[in-house]
Amino acid sequence: MSFRARHLLGIEHIAPDEITTLLDLAETYVDLNRSTDKHDNALQGLTQINMFFENSTRTQASFELAGKRLGADVMNMHMQASSVKKGETLIDTALTLNAMHPDLLVVRHPDSGAVNLLAQKVNCAVLNAGDGRHEHPTQALLDALTIRRAKGRLHRLTVAICGDIAHSRVARSNIWLLGKMENRVRLVGPPTLMPSGAADWGVEVYDDMKEGLKDADVVMMLRLQKERMDGAFIPSEREYFHRYGLDAAKLDNAKEDAIVMHPGPMNRGVEIDGTIADDINRSVIQDQVEMGVAVRMAAMKLLADNLKAARSAPKEVAV
Amino acid sequence: MSALLFKNARLIDPETGTDSVGTLAVRDGKIAGPTGMDDATVIDCDGKCLAPGIVDIGVKVSEPGERHKESFRSAGLAAAAGGVTTMVTRPDTTPAIDTPEVLEFVRRRANEASPVRVLPMAALTRGRQGREMAEIGFLMDAGAVAFTDCDSVITDTKVFTRCMTYATSLGALVIAHPQEPILSAGAAATSGKFASLKGLPAVSPMAERMGLDRDIAVVEMTGARYHADQITTARALRRLERARSVGLDITAGVSIHHLTLNELDVGDFRTFFKVKPPLRSEDDRLAAVEAVASGLIDVISSMHTPQDEESKRLPFAEAASGAVGLETLLPAAMRLVHNGHIDLPTLWRALSLAPSKRLGLDTGRLKAGAPADLVLFDPDAPFVMDRAKLRSKSKNTPFDEARMEGRVLGTWVGGAPVFPD
């Protein structure tokens, strides 16, 4: 068991044993985070820069807390408000920051692939905190940890991912992860919000909630991403809630002990009924937030270890 | 002008469909037939292929406006090195080539700087805006060989119909980019399993058929001479076939990239593989190759589109489209031969004879009296493509580090050597 990756750009390129290694380490951080002295020195002396080219409160706070609890020096940069407005390219911004010798770069960007591009130009570990509709790997990892703790395993489960799949990087990372760990994945949503070709991903596609939720162990709701929509995707929020919003009647089709998840922030009354979201017997939404910090601590610790190993390895001398 | 005698050449003649070893004489810039005069300079071809030079429809030379990306000099040198003896250039420059004055500038620059022939196309509408017709008559008088708004689709069908009607009265060839423009707005990839997984903005391949359907209807209405710049999907090919079978004057091209690459080549957001229309599925690629072999697709182009590093080193959706292709067209096309999809005379029909015929040129043939625009190449010579060595000012090729076979050994335009220089 080991974690070999240099960056965490997506779940696509990491292996099942790396996922397990990371989740196992995250478990220890869950315990640490619940204790009174929430401090560890794993990232002592390292500099972590959070670069968010897209608004975020929750993810950024989670990464910031994760870094601070492990002793890193953490800096937050809100890129919408800075040099991007002055016309600087992504690459130049990356090179500028790189010159400040960060060790961990946490990046969120509205374009798919932007974080991959940036990772090619810097010599530190890069964590993707969400790029366009592509991937959001730490979200999938925190979801995995939440499921593993609630269900006691992370394989042979039926997971229904419901709602706005088309615009969701959370869905894509989860499809990769749940598939790699050998689960049965269903995608449920209106056909306008279902990505083209999704049926070829090794998942089952449904446009009816009751059928899609039947006997599911996990019901993962997605936020309706109104800000990413550029045309007619759904007729109205009330019709969407009627047909695809998670309420008690629809949830009845899932297994009796099915858990309900949501990556947040929620649109109550649009994709999820408030009472379901708050039902402590079904909803693990608050656990997801808690696991988020632990998973991000684990990811940064493992990447930092690899970074330190790479830096102390004897360098090849050019002749 | 001196005489040349190419001996021991494997002559590729797309007009007769032959591929045979023989001798070819050149005199006064024209092909003279199989026997030469005593005073001719003898070139021993050592059994290598001698074919008519490539006529490349749709080359972008970034003059005027972006000479740092490509000039007539750099494009001409690249063309010569790639066996392209005629560049049919695009008007999607800055400003667009939409007046006789700009066209005259282009012709002057081409004459003084390019070692190969340059035939300019002009915009069909002013500024390629799709609103007002360009001065088609004046532009023809000034030397425009065809009219196109390039990848900018004329959304207003009324304007498009009038342009086509007017062009018909002058016998002008209109080249269009078949695409439903609203459906494909903002797309950077072809929709499907791969693009969805990567989260890329994508368009259904059906948008090409929808665009072609409209254009075919307008051709039927107006009787215009029409050429589709690139047909890249199986579903659009079926419509093309039907339109041809009822006798409409429609021809079609395809870029070498759509014949040799597919959507998966984009991999992890490699922007050098971002072209317009986006790369297609493997099934569509094979359908296009098949259509070239059968003659349904008439023309293969490089769709040479220089882009500098800055416009490509961006997130995929924001990066510029297009790839350079003048120097890689021949070795990339040889992949189709080496894979057994197509033979050399058929390939040269698409690279040289068909584009010549469509533009009313007498190039593309090896018969006596045709211009001695020739390329001598070794079809099997292997090499690893190194983009730094390209003669184009822009190095945005998707074939960087690719293993290729097929090297140009010499290029002649009107009997004069232009490569090696």
From TrEMBL, chain A:
The protein, known as: Aspartate carbamoyltransferase
The organism's place on the tree of life at top rank: Bacteria
Domain Aspartate/ornithine carbamoyltransferase carbamoyl-P binding intervals: 6-148
PANTHER family on file: ASPARTATE CARBAMOYLTRANSFERASE, ORNITHINE CARBAMOYLTRANSFERASE, MITOCHONDRIAL
Domain Aspartate/ornithine carbamoyltransferase Asp/Orn-binding stretches: 157-302
Homology family: Belongs to the aspartate/ornithine carbamoyltransferase superfamily. ATCase family.
Biological-process GO terms, alphabetical: 'de novo' pyrimidine nucleobase biosynthetic process; 'de novo' UMP biosynthetic process; amino acid metabolic process
Binding-site residues for L-aspartate, renumbered to this chain: K86, R169, R223
Assembly mode: Heterododecamer (2C3:3R2) of six catalytic PyrB chains organized as two trimers (C3), and six regulatory PyrI chains organized as three dimers (R2).
UniProt keyword Transferase present: yes
Record's function text: Catalyzes the condensation of carbamoyl phosphate and aspartate to form carbamoyl aspartate and inorganic phosphate, the committed step in the de novo pyrimidine nucleotide biosynthesis pathway.
UniProt keyword Transferase present: yes
TrEMBL record, chain B:
InterPro entries: Amidohydro_3, DHOase, DHOase/Allantoinase_Hydrolase, DHOase_cat, Metal-dep_hydrolase_composite, Metal_Hydrolase
GO biological process: purine nucleobase catabolic process; pyrimidine nucleotide biosynthetic process
The keyword Zinc is annotated on this UniProt entry: yes
The enzyme's E.C. designation: 3.5.2.3
Catalytic class of the enzyme: hydrolase
Taxonomic source organism: Boseongicola aestuarii
Name recorded for this polypeptide: Dihydroorotase
KW Repressor (keyword) present: no
Gene3D superfamilies membership: Metal-dependent hydrolases (3.20.20.140), Urease, subunit C, domain 1 (2.30.40.10)
Keywords: Hydrolase, Pyrimidine biosynthesis, Zinc
Superkingdom classification of source: Bacteria
CC per GO annotation: cytoplasm
Dihydroorotase catalytic domain span: 47-233
Coiled-coil features, chain-numbered ranges: none
GO molecular function: allantoinase activity; dihydroorotase activity; metal ion binding
Entry-linked CDD domains: DHOase_IIa
Ranges for domain Amidohydrolase: 342-419
